[in-house]
Design a protein that fits this description.
alpha/beta; TIM Barrel; Alpha-Beta Plaits; 2 domains; globular
């Protein structure tokens, strides 16, 4: 039975495609963007959250841990020794305050489709299902089967991807996809590798493949001092226009993922980045429009 590992399902989303949507966040991603807002999706396995503000300090988790990986409450932020923890999740089972939580659940294709079909009543004419991540292409077979099932049920499908994945898998998925939201972060290959940990060659090739098959909107996460330079903006616009993309959504850096880093016992990266000001957004939008592209600040469908 084919299953997918899902980090989170968000109902009534209005920012991940047209209309009201259900957004499914999958686990697994080959990129390590320095500003990532979903660090719990990097690895294709379940993760342990510790939410200190919910902790009552009862000590039940310490007693239940067979690896002695959990210290007293006062030891936060290093209360959980992540090197010792083997993710048995016995601590989650005994926590009365729900301060310990599992991030990640396996769904079969049928189980997820049943859930989505129940939500269909809220979609109206424009809404539907968006699969995001992590990187959906890291679980391409699962995405393919879910999108096939959505097409059979008359549910609109949106693929929210970085484009960093197997081209053959992407091509199959596109047959059942109504819209692609493609993150395009940096055009210079060396800079892309510096800030995301991977080359952008495959991403650019897959972007062209997607744009030749279905409508594509490019999402540009704008970060001051990283990708807001005139050369990068112009290269992004030129590339988008060259593959027939008409829409670019400029998304200013946000810090909504800061709590997730804390819950995973990691240091938040956001202190190292500057959020763009309105003047920066207007300047970037002006460059994009000069190439004939329609621009939205944030995702406007």
């Amino acid at each position: 039975m084919l299953t997918g590992l899902i980090s989170e399902i968000t109902s009534f989303s209005t920012m991940d495609g047209p209309g009201i949507r259900t957004t499914v966040f999958l686990k697994g991603c080959p990129l390590r963007c320095k500003w990532c807002s979903n660090p719990e999706t990097w690895e294709k396995k379940r993760a342990l959250y510790y939410i200190p503000k919910k902790c009552g300090g009862c000590g039940k988790c310490e007693a239940a841990c067979p690896r002695r990986a959990i210290g007293p409450r006062r030891a936060y932020p290093t209360r959980i020794d992540r090197k010792k923890c083997d993710l048995c999740f016995r601590c989650v089972e005994v926590c009365p305050c729900r301060a310990l939580k599992i991030s990640g659940r396996e769904y079969s294709v049928g189980e997820l489709l049943s859930f989505l079909e129940r939500e269909k009543v809220f979609y109206g004419k424009e809404g539907g299902v968006t699969i995001s991540g992590g990187e959906p292409l890291a679980q391409s077979r699962f995405v393919l089967e879910v999108f096939k099932g959505c097409r059979e049920r008359g549910i609109s499908t949106v693929l929210d991807t970085s484009g960093c994945g197997d081209t053959d898998g992407l091509t199959e998925i596109l047959r059942y996809t109504d819209l692609v939201l493609l993150d395009l972060k940096l055009m210079d290959e060396k800079l892309h590798k510096k800030w995301t940990g991977a080359s952008n060659g495959l991403i650019l090739r897959n972007a062209a493949v997607a744009a030749s098959s279905v409508p594509v909107r490019i999402s540009l996460p704008l970060i001051r001092g990283v990708n807001d330079s005139e050369p990068n903006l112009r290269a992004t616009a030129e590339f988008a226009a060259s593959i027939g993309v008409k829409n670019i959504d400029i998304e200013p850096l946000h810090t909504l993922g800061a709590g997730k880093y804390r819950y995973l016992g990691m240091r938040s990266p956001y202190g190292a980045f500057l959020r763009p000001e309105q003047a920066d957004l207007n300047r970037a939008a002006g460059v994009m429009r000069s190439y004939g592209l329609e621009v939205s600040l944030g995702r406007m469908m």
